[in-house]
Inverse folding.
């Protein structure tokens, strides 16, 4: 599963971007640290209360997903079902 998570995270641009998830718009912030061994993602529903927050770490040969204040299933669902959009849309 963590290989899929990494694939989805690699498809999200570094910095701030917009996404659609379940028909709602989200502001997504992704930052990569430690020469690519640590990724932070925070997505907030615009005009709503929902958010997605995670840290993803590479420990030796294994990637470790650490959701923040939510289930791993919720994080994975967002990563698999959000759609990046241009701000002009």
């Amino acid at each position: 599963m963590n290989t899929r998570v990494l694939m989805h995270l690699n498809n999200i641009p570094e910095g701030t971007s917009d996404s659609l998830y379940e028909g709602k718009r989200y502001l997504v912030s992704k930052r990569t640290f430690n020469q690519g061994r640590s990724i932070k993602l925070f997505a907030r529903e615009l005009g709503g209360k929902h958010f997605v927050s995670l840290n993803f770490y590479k420990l030796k040969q294994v990637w470790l997903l650490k959701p923040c204040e939510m289930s791993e299933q919720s994080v994975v669902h967002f990563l698999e079902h959000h759609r990046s959009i241009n701000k002009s849309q």
Remarks:
- The beta strands are 15-21, 24-33, 38-45, 51-59, 62-67, 83-85.
- The chain has a mean pLDDT of 93.
